[in-house]
Specification:
The structure is a homodimer of 231-residue chains.
Chain A: H1 3-7, E1 10-21, E2 26-32, E3 42-43, E4 46-48, H2 55-67, E5 73-80, E6 90-99, E7 116-120, H3 131-148, H4 162-173, H5 181-190, E8 194-200, E9 210-214, H6 216-224
Parallel strand pairs in A: 1-6
Antiparallel strand pairs in A: 1-2, 1-4, 2-3, 2-7, 5-6, 8-9
The structure holds a DNA duplex (27 and 27 nucleotides).
Chain lengths: 231, 231
DNA sequence: TCAAAAGTGTTCTTATTACACCCATGG
DNA sequence: CCATGGGTGTAATAAGAACACTTTTGA
């Protein structure tokens, strides 16, 4: 048995659906595979889990190696383990998603030049392995979770306008009808954990919007009073 | 040891939180370990995944070996993979929960005599490995899921009374205040997928209750009309 | 002065909550 | 005839949905 065959006899990996939002569309970060199997195909970033590495740590490492970012939101979603999902042996993979502020990401760092790319979620197709299925699971999870936990803010810069926030929700949820501006604002502000900064947008060719930020302490209070985030 | 050899020493297992309901309390099925590590301790039923076995199939096998039951509700919850969670090596485990009709289960079949037992969820403590944590995750998932999908019926016999159904929800959700009988009935009946059988309870020392059953076809219609289960 | 997005309240409809008494049966 | 749980309706409140115009800015 060759070394490669031995290596892949039985192993586990992590794969990471890295979500970003550029103001218009929900995107994910894909890599182009440089080696077999599926050489040249687009895939989710992932790696085998090291023998002395926790699963969450492996997912965080994959993310950091690709983007340089630490301490981002990361959530385990599901484990995929079909017998034949990997052509070279039995490899199960634990799928994660992470949410990053896309502006923090310096596009395609040197080591990954021409091999990683942001792609609109709605344009992704025909990924390597079972990654289409993994993406579908992670996207479904995100859609649910974003309505029941204050995750959206992880995708926005620290200061944002309410329209940006709403556009984020519209992109993620992708509902047949967009959210109603007035109802959205009323609801999110009534929860009381968005605070107005003393600043407005600059350099826009229209009335500049107020900037808000997410106040985590106030969110904790909100929870302690028995309320739940629900949008 | 080479890095390649290190990967070899890893394995993956499934563990299964098997929920049942006896009319009063929510229970899970535990086994007493007959071998090291944690010999004699109570644990979730589980096993290593065979090389040519899908993960879901492994979870179903564990369940069937213990209870004789097939085709039960089974859902993957989360994968636990701390480096030191297993004393004998790197073993990650994929946690599942399943829902069975407890009356179908012939208590402790021969091969497991004195080694498996139904335990009230609220009484479970100090399980082997990280199984306390696994149980907590599965219970949290069940609590959420039972309100947003018609899972409760998996725990009841095919024909049941509305009071039994409500007691099931009270047990699973374990809310500070019990559900209101009239509101519960109004809501669940308004969804239109519970059908009245032409039968009533027998042998009870009070007015016998009507029996109902869950009509899966009507539930599908309900979904197709754009409604969602929400309790 | 125009274009473009920001900002703002009210009404209507629907869902949720709270709540108490009579009924049918077996013992 | 008593004890036990089964079965039922209404009113008050809260939440959600629908909807259009004025304001501020830069070009």
């Amino acid at each position: 048995m060759s070394e490669v065959e031995s290596f892949f006899k039985s192993a586990f990996s992590v794969d990471n659906v890295i979500f970003g939002f550029d103001g218009g569309d929900l995107k994910i970060l894909l890599i182009q595979r440089g080696a077999a199997p599926y050489k040249g195909k687009w895939a989710l970033p992932g790696d085998l889990v090291y023998p002395n590495e926790d699963l969450d740590a492996a997912a965080a490492r994959v993310l950091e190696q690709l983007t340089g970012l630490k301490e981002v939101y990361l959530e385990q979603v599901k484990t995929f383990g079909s017998v034949n999902r990997h052509p070279l042996g039995r490899v199960i993979t634990i799928a994660y998603f992470s949410l990053i502020k896309i502006s923090n990401y310096t596009v395609t760092p040197a080591s990954f030049a021409q091999s990683s790319q942001w792609v609109n979620v709605s344009d992704v197709e025909d990924l390597a392995f079972d990654h289409d299925e993994i993406l579908a699971s992670c996207l479904a999870r995100l859609k649910r979770k974003v309505r029941t936990a204050p995750l959206g803010f992880e995708l926005l810069p620290p200061k944002f306008t309410l329209s940006e926030l709403q556009q984020l929700y519209d992109s993620v949820l992708n509902l047949p009808k967009k959210l109603d501006k007035r109802n959205f604002r009323k609801k999110i502000l009534s929860m009381g954990f968005l605070v107005e900064c003393d600043e407005v947008q600059e350099g826009v060719a229209h009335r500049p919007a107020k900037l808000y930020s997410f106040d985590r302490e106030k969110y904790e209070e909100f929870l302690n009073e028995g309320y739940v985030f629900d949008l």
